Amino acid sequence: MSQPGVTMEFKMHPELPPPAMTVGVVGWFRQNLFSSLANTILTLVAVYMLYITLVPLIQWAFIDSNWAGTSRDDCTGGGACWVFIVKRLDQFIYGFYPEAERWRVQLSFALLAALCVPLFVKRLPKKVWLGAFLLFVYPVLAFFLLYGGPFGLQVIATDQWGGLMLTLVLSSVGMVASLPIGILLALGRRSTMPIVRTFCVAFIELWRGVPLITVLFMSSVMLPLFFPEGVTLDKLVRALIGITLFESAYMAEVVRGGLQAIPKGQYEAAKALGLNFWKSMALIVMPQALKLVIPGIVNTFIALFKDTTLVIIIGLFDILGAVEAAIKDPSWLGYAIEGYVFAALVFWIFCYGMSRYSQALERKLSTGHTQ
């Protein structure tokens, strides 16, 4: 007991810092990699596997590699011969497009970048008009730039297109065209009109039931038979039609999954507002559905980008086809690994970029619906 007249004073000691072994890098390692005997063994095995894999790979790709030169005689380091990639880089990008006309390819893609960049500015006025110009006017300008004809431009047949340029043309046209067609097919599959629903179901199941390589082959061989005599369709256009119809069937199922995830109350609320079917879909239902299926849409786009390599079976040389044509050159035999590594790196860059953008778009639109 305290004595009368004596004041007891209590002081709180400052909090002590956590033990150094439980925080920071050391703490993270202990918690995630060495938290138990089993985890420790697995970590050591993984480190060993990385060591025996990465060290020779780095040695081959960077330390013993050759970058400068003009022929295979300059590859004397025993590692990767990146001279092959440097010498054939133009072919990998432009295919067989004439060198004197490649400024048209550069201008078309520079124009595309110039039109796309402003769309990422949040408060840009009249962004809708810019988007409409990009969707409807730019493709026409790009076609005339690449193909030629008007304004005295030399005509470059599509069989001379190739490399990364052709890959981007195939994938971008397929993505832009398959999304609206897929949305219409998804709506038609959920329609109450039997004829519309039956047609959409038959279309989707037919195209999803065959591989893309078969679609490309049939579009190249069978599609011309349906045209009147004397009417021919460019091989690239046939491939674009096949890719678009094939991917639109997959896109329809992705969008249909988003439509089914929308609560019934949203449809009823749209009817209560007096909106007809198309207005309710455009203003209420479809924006929510598309937000939900952003990962599925981007996943379909990534698959489409990689599937463009199949056009080689109909005589179109995308970037992978250009690489395969280059490695068959007698003066560069034996450097297939470098070519395939380069093609894989290009595909990874584009696919990873689309994946990261989709994640950023999900966070921006709060598609997780977290509360």
How is this fold's topology laid out?
Elements: H1 24-32, H2 37-63, H3 83-87, H4 89-94, H5 102-116, H6 127-147, H7 163-189, H8 194-208, H9 212-221, H10 235-261, H11 264-272, H12 277-292, H13 294-307, E1 317-318, H14 319-327, H15 336-365
What is the distance, rounded to the nearest whole angstrom, between the alpha carbons of the first and last residues?
53 Å
The total of beta strands comes to 1
Number of domains: 2
Main sheet properties: none
Overall helicity:
55-70%
Report the CATH topology name of the largest domain.
MetI-like fold
User: Helix/strand/pairing class, anyone?
Assistant: mainly alpha
Shape: globular
Give the overall average pLDDT: 89
Task: Tell me what you see in this structure.
Helix 5 runs antiparallel to helix 6 (127-147). This protein has 371 residues and is mostly helical. It has helices spanning 24-32, 37-63, 83-87, 89-94, 102-116, 127-147, 163-189, 194-208, 212-221, 235-261, 264-272, 277-292, 294-307, 319-327, 336-365; one strand at 317-318. The longest helix has 30 residues, at 336-365.
What structural keywords apply?
371 residues, mainly alpha, MetI-like fold, globular
Write a brief caption for the model.
It contains 15 helices and 1 strand; from the N terminus they run H-H-H-H-H-H-H-H-H-H-H-H-H-E-H-H. It has about 375 residues and is an all-alpha fold.
